[in-house]
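Think of the structure tokens as a kind of shorthand, similar to the way a musician reads notation: each symbol stands for something richer, in this case the local conformation of the backbone. In the example below we present two proteins back to back. Begin with the first one, reading the sequence and then the tokens, and try to describe in your own words what changes along the chain.
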Amino acid sequence: MEEQNKFLIPAAIVFAGIVIAVAVVYSTNDKSRNANTDNTKIAALTALPAISSSDFVLGEQNAPVTVIEYGDFQCPFCGKFFRDTESVLREKYIKTGKVRFIYRDFAFLGQESTWASNAARCAGEQNKFWQYHDYLYNNQQGENQGAFGKENLKKFASALGLDRSKFDTCLDSEKYNDLIQKETKEGGEAGVQGTPANFVNGALYAGALPVASFTKIIDDELSKLGK
């Protein structure tokens, strides 16, 4: 019995260490994901991929400030950023030619995130990416609870007047999975650890920044450029 305990005690210590390590990792990721008030500039780990035909862009091509958001359609803080800050960004900066805004996928919260990203890109085939993007953020209802299951995503397409036959075929094929995974991987390599994450002329700012914080960042950038 004493000999058996010699093995049990070290094993228990190892197991406890594993549990603690997992808790620390989860806590760290959760803090990163929920850092919705942090407006600290973070150095990008690698250069962002160049803007390409696979990107969806709002605003003028030659706008002095480029904002690239990495988001997850299920992320509640992305939804908050969309409703509270991005709406102001569109009116004050994008429509006036000061900002070019680009949305990229960082689909890390589960299967429904990937399906939603696929659906938005399928809508993009019918020139309605941004309408679908907005519809998704306005219809969040928890993570991986069915809100962004394929049947609901198809209903969203009907609500937006999309050609359902083309949309359904696109969504069911999950044709954009590789591209979504690629964008998510590239975002991580550039320093994205949670969503939303915004690059303003290449500088990374984490979290769902309040309107005042985000507009100050843009105004400072415009001032620096003499705009």
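Once you have a description of the first chain, move to the second and do the same.
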Amino acid sequence: MFERIKNIALYGGTDRESYNAVKGRIQDNNSIMSLVFASVASILIGIMLMLSHTQEGFSGSRPVYIAGLILSLIQIILSLHSRKVPWLSYISVYVAISVFLLYGIAIATLTRPEEQTVTFMVLLIFVPLIFVDRPVNIAISLIFYIILFLIMAYRNKTGAVLSVDVTDALIFGMLSLVSETVVNRAKIRGYVLDNKLHIMSETDQLTGLNNRNCYEMKLPVYDTLYQENICCIYIDVNGLHEINNTKGHKAGDEMLCYIADMVQKQFGVRDAYRVGGDEYVVFVMDTSEDEIKSKLQTLNDLITKHGYHAAVGYEYHKGKNLNINKLIVEAESKMYKDKDEYYKVKNRKSR
């Protein structure tokens, strides 16, 4: 029970690993929403500030409008810089919440203490639903502003207005805490589910490497991903058909998984793909050709030691002006030469 409550409070009902996987997307979304609402708030508060010079009903709130406008402009600056400094997105979120809720508190308790509070109650419900963060963080900030409102109300309000506002603050505060927890939980779970679907759409379910779909999507950008050199390695498993026929498909799958694991061990998973039933493509960037040859020799030794064999070809390119398709064709052509040599030797041994 405690673990479930902790997961809801900290990770929106998911888990730490899943939440951390989507934290970047949450930060991006918060940056955009913070910028939009800061811009809207600046315009609206700016209009009210101008009206305070011409309309008597707004003049008493002029200091509140000035403070709100300054905070909104600070929030815009934070939002614009949060793309380069991701943690600023969280600061901009709570600056945004502060802008709205402090504005509501100031209007309710400083400029119009004789009136029943409406603005603060509306903002208390609405503002927390705009952004996404750990439910416990937003809950703590809301509790702080509810307490601040109650303190200011007791200092500046009296009689029936005070009683009604205190009661409303407690009721709307509870509603706000519940609604922000429910909505944040749904948003975070939505991000996590979308991330899992995205991973599934780009991951080969048998081997865990990137799949053909991911390969086709990422291929056009490889000319921008390396600095000095890039190498394409083309691998084709030998003997899969024979193993499937003699030992069954489970044995064939085990061979594919083992070779994929060895590929991942030598070259990592980020740029390794299973592009066909028994074919793998790996891109290695900004690595010396001697180091690549050494890793390929280690890969071959590991595969052979396990009783398997794979045909391998690679093509190495230095400098820019990359033709990625030509690079792949050259690597594939060398792989087929290696495959032919393997079967020539195998056939001679059989005879």
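Compare your description with these statements about the second chain. The chain has a mean pLDDT of 89.
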